[in-house]
Design brief:
The protein is of the alpha/beta class. The longest helix is centred in the middle third of the chain and has 27 residues, at about 465-490.
Length: about 950
């Protein structure tokens, strides 16, 4: 096809328009050159033509928007991100059914944010037409992101995610005030600020005229947020129109790196200007004589401000305020004096690190002064919401167990009663899962290529000062060596590494920070980096560690072929780190002025330093260029621990160089030792399970009603870390989770109590012996591995009546804090209703491990290795037969899974399927015996996964029970 055809097709895929038949307008454009016209087959060929780059880019963008659309009438009864939605789009485009499969293969659905929402008391208002009419600040923000080298796909996903948030706010022109309250859950260091900047841009385009951004509790975080919003959204013209010159000495301001709007909003009546109520150097201050800054302009005084005639020409006010009682009180006092009627002002409140704004975010054992401060902050936020009836509240957090989910006392003010949006994990992001082996790779088989732990994690197990110094030196050597590798890559054309940092986090106590800083300063002097004596040590580290990992994980990057290629850069890295007063910066202090350190201003200049700190480095503070982390601090709260994961984030061009040195024997109460790596792994798994639950029950049922609402979410949380108290509780308001059923989808029941004397294991084995006696057939089943390769496994199998399975699982004991009850209720309900008659029970036989003799049992059985979580971190096991679940889901009728011909043959409409796994769980001194046999039933655990028949719960269902009468029921969500 010609370029003319490509251009004609691309023009019919405009941004913001609904899908419509594409053939007729294309032929109208091409009438002169193609009088006979194109056929729909020709248009499809253009869509699939790799050389039609512009067409493919435009179509990908439109499909992403259309797949995610929630409010337009053209979507009909289809749900967002569903196969039915995509088929609807193809139909509207005029594509025949026989082309759908090929189109899906070339343009797969991308997914999107997970949304849990209550039904809204209004008709959809944030339509594509509304978005097209007012998009000045969003278009400006998109240009900024493109200039920062964000690709089209990443910007497109941000567009989808931010639209998903904004359309759940109330229409700012709505006659009746309504406060929508929501929560956006991201990942630690994953770009939440970009999301809420996009939300702010779209919200002010839509008509919100007062924006309040609540940041962290220290000034450096507030200033960082202010500067970013000023630089990327407010823009030079709006900043220059004010009286403050806070960026006069800013390098980016002088170099023209701040946003320059295409049209000066101060010189036109068509675009509202932004007036800053705070600056990068000053938090909110009482306006006094300048109170008129909060007096909103109106065109027609007979109409309220929220009337479109007045609203759109009115200018925007924005305040970036830290969560400090004094600052918030000044804002509240000024709001009470505003000349404009407060119930007419559409306001948006963004609460960054939202879990810090709640009364229960701190340990009650902490100082009373801190308790009072936190309570007072929450009170001020509540008062702002009370004053501004049109205020919309959006909390942002990276810790899904934050107390904004669960604190009933606080829910009156900031509980996200309208929506929860769980953001996608960004593609290039390096998060918790990237430092742990969640697929349970056997320890003996681990290599840097298949194990995240082997690649990125280095143990700290020192038992004496000499060992501790050696571990610190290895971390310091790694910091210098990675700096040299970065400089080597720069010499080969890589983008300059402006920042290169190492984080040392051992304690929350300031006095201990000073001691640790002095240790590293002394170590720096004695390490000999400016002398030849260090080279042999660094060469050994490079050869044994970084060369191996980079070959496995960074092969696309420039890597030295020998240590000799690095030598000249060792000294250069040493010099960069040594610049200034010291290579070490302590980041703490009792007063905010202690944080205003020029040496730690990532905006002002490049930072190549070792940072020592505690709390101030564990929430909200972005440590740019972080490559080496030395971490040994224990904490008693799960969300606090997750926030300390500053090693999470984006690591462009040096992902393979990241190393986490983490304490494996950290001292705790009563002389106990704690493995912080395993603690992190436990909460990473819990977070993943929680997000999976949100995904399963997001969306609406066939009646168009939400499966669950935000009020139903907290009882879905499972977290079992006995010493690590979660901020979130398992119970919320007045509800208990009592029913959980998903037809055709398997669930692993691994949450078993600690082994103890093994008697629980023995009872569990006895419970399943009736199932084992029914396994009288052997056959082959299929599954698709993580590389999308179809593989097979052999299993014994048999058909067992459903009531026999129920009797067996009823005898199992479970870990404290985990309730089998909701699953049992679904199981027994399906049996009683005749939707579940029997189970196909499978016992997989590993190909590389021979069955083992079992004491008191008449035949050998397969015993596999599964990782038991020690009681201090999490009880139970890490998984059952993860890869083999395709087979039982196929047998149970899942339309998405293919377990092979035998699985298909075993399928019945009223048949579920179950996998049994026996996992090594010996007493410590009996390990060899457990591996070789004969094995006592106390020395292995019985694990199982099962799937209910798809027909029993084709849409999935969870239900909640009111604990006390008269307090309001929480809906049974179908």
């Amino acid at each position: 096809m010609s370029d003319e055809v490509f251009r004609a097709v691309a023009r019919e895929l405009g941004d913001g328009f609904p899908p419509e038949n594409v053939l007729y307008p294309v032929n109208a454009r091409l009438r002169a050159s193609y009088p006979d016209g194109l056929t729909i087959a020709d248009v499809i060929d253009v869509f699939l033509d790799d050389s039609a780059v512009g067409v493919r880019t435009a179509l990908t963008s439109r499909l992403r928007q259309w797949d995610a659309e929630s409010v337009e009438t053209w979507v009909g009864s289809t749900t967002r991100q569903s196969p039915e939605r995509r088929a609807r789009i193809y139909d509207l485009l005029g594509l025949p059914v026989d082309a759908h499969a090929e189109m899906d293969a070339r343009f797969p659905r991308e997914g999107g944010p997970v949304v849990i929402a209550a039904q809204q008391p209004w008709d959809p208002w944030y339509t594509s037409e509304r978005r097209r009419e007012h998009d000045f600040y969003w278009r400006a923000y998109k240009r900024v992101l493109a200039d920062k080298n964000w690709d089209e796909a990443t910007i497109g996903k941000l567009d989808v995610a931010t639209t998903e948030v904004v359309h759940r706010l109330a229409d700012p022109t709505r006659p009746e005030p309504y406060q929508s309250k929501g929560l956006v859950v991201g990942y630690v260091q994953s770009g939440k600020t970009a999301n809420f900047s996009g939300v702010v841009a779209k919200a002010i385009d839509a008509g919100y005229r007062l924006v309040i951004v609540l940041t962290g509790t220290i000034e450096i975080l507030r200033s960082q947020t202010q500067r970013r919003l000023d630089m990327e959204l407010v823009g030079r013209q709006n900043i220059s129109a004010g009286v403050d010159d806070d960026y006069a000495n800013d390098e980016d301001w002088r170099n023209g790196n701040f946003l320059e709007h295409e049209i000066d909003p101060n010189k036109t009546n068509e675009i509202p200007a932004i007036r800053r109520l705070t600056t990068s150097t000053f938090d909110y201050k009482s306006l006094l004589a300048g109170l008129s800054a909060l007096h909103f302009e109106t065109v027609d005084h007979s109409l309220p401000l929220n009337d479109p005639k007045n609203l759109y020409p009115s200018n925007i006010r924005i305040a970036v305020v830290k969560k400090n009682v004094s600052s918030l009180k000044k804002l509240v006092a000024d709001l009470k004096k505003v000349p404009t009627e407060l119930d007419q002002i559409p306001a948006l409140i963004i609460d960054d690190e939202a879990d810090q704004a709640s009364v229960n975010t701190i340990d009650p054992k902490k100082m009373k002064t801190e308790q009072i401060e936190r309570t007072a902050i929450n009170g001020q936020i509540a008062e702002i919401l009370g004053l501004l009836e049109r205020a919309q509240y959006i909390g942002y957090t990276a810790t899904p167990f934050a107390n904004v989910f669960v604190d009933p006392e606080d829910s009156v003010n900031v509980f996200p009663s309208d929506f929860i949006v769980s953001l996608e994990r960004p593609g290039p992001y390096m998060g918790g899962a990237d430092f742990h082996d969640l697929d349970d790779v056997e320890d003996d088989d681990k290599t840097p290529a298949n194990s995240n732990e082997k690649a990125y994690v280095r143990d700290l197990r020192a038992e004496c000062d000499e060992d501790r110094s050696a571990e610190q030196l290895r971390a310091l050597d790694s910091f210098v060596l990675t700096g040299a590798i970065k400089l080597f890559r720069e010499s080969k054309g890589a983008k300059p590494y402006r920042h290169h940092t190492m984080l040392v986090h051992e304690s929350v106590k300031q006095a201990e920070h000073d001691a640790v800083a002095n240790d590293f300063k002394a170590l720096w002097k004695s390490a000999g980096y400016s002398q030849a004596k260090s080279l042999s040590r660094l060469e050994k580290l490079w050869a044994e560690d970084f060369a191996v990992v980079s070959a496995a994980r960074g092969s696309e990057l420039a890597n030295p072929s020998s240590f000799g290629d690095l030598e000249e850069f060792i000294g250069a890295a040493y010099d960069r780190i040594s610049e200034g007063t010291s290579p070490v910066i302590v980041v703490n202090g009792a007063a905010e002025k202690d944080y205003k350190q020029d040496s730690l201003d990532f905006q002002e200049r490049g930072v190549w330093k070792i940072l020592v700190g505690g709390t101030k480095l564990s929430r909200g503070f972005t440590v740019e260029g972080l490559t080496i982390t030395y971490y040994t601090r224990r904490t008693g709260q799960a969300d606090t621990l997750m926030q300390m994961g500053r090693w999470f984030g984006f690591r462009p061009g040096y992902r393979d160089l990241v190393r986490l040195f983490i304490g494996r024997t950290v001292g705790g109460p009563a002389g106990a030792d704690y493995d912080m790596y395993k603690a992190f792994e436990a909460i990473v798994r819990d977070e993943q399970e929680f997000r999976n639950e949100l995904t399963r029950f997001s969306g609406v049922n066939e009646k168009g009603e939400p499966w669950v609402t935000p009020r139903d979410v907290p009882p879905m949380v499972f977290q079992q870390l006995p010493w690590l108290r979660p901020t979130a509780r398992n119970k919320m308001f007045n509800a208990d989770l009592v029913y959980r059923g998903m037809g055709g989808e398997s669930f692993s029941f691994t949450m078993q109590p600690p082994r103890g004397d093994g008697s629980i294991n023995a009872r569990h084995f006895d419970a399943v012996t009736p199932l084992l006696k029914s396994l009288d057939e052997t056959g082959s089943f299929n599954f698709v591995d993580k590389d999308d390769v179809s593989r097979s496994f052999t299993a014994r199998y048999g058909i067992v009546p459903a009531h026999v399975v129920l009797e067996a699982v009823d005898q199992f004991e479970w870990a404290n804090g985990w309730d089998f009850g909701p699953h049992r209720e679904a199981l027994s309900t399906a049996i009683e209703s005749g939707l579940l008659e029997d189970f196909a029970v499978l016992l997989p036989y590993p190909k590389t491990r021979e069955p083992i003799e079992i004491k008191g049992w008449h035949e050998k059985l397969p015993i596999v290795n599964r990782k038991r979580q020690e009681r201090e971190y999490r009880t139970g096991f890490t998984g059952t037969a993860v890869r083999e679940r395709d087979a039982i889901e196929h047998i149970a009728g899942s339309p998405k899974k293919n377990g092979g011909p035998l699985a298909g043959a075993l399928h019945r409409k009223t048949r579920g399927a179950l996998i049994l796994v026996f996992a090594n769980d010996p007493a410590p001194r009996q390990l060899k015996r457990a591996q070789a046999g004969p094995v006592d039933s106390r020395d292995f655990a019985t694990l199982f996964s099962y799937a209910l028949p798809h027909a029993a719960e084709p849409l999935g269902r969870i239900g909640f029970r009111v604990k006390q009468s008269g307090t309001g029921a929480i809906v049974d969500a179908n």
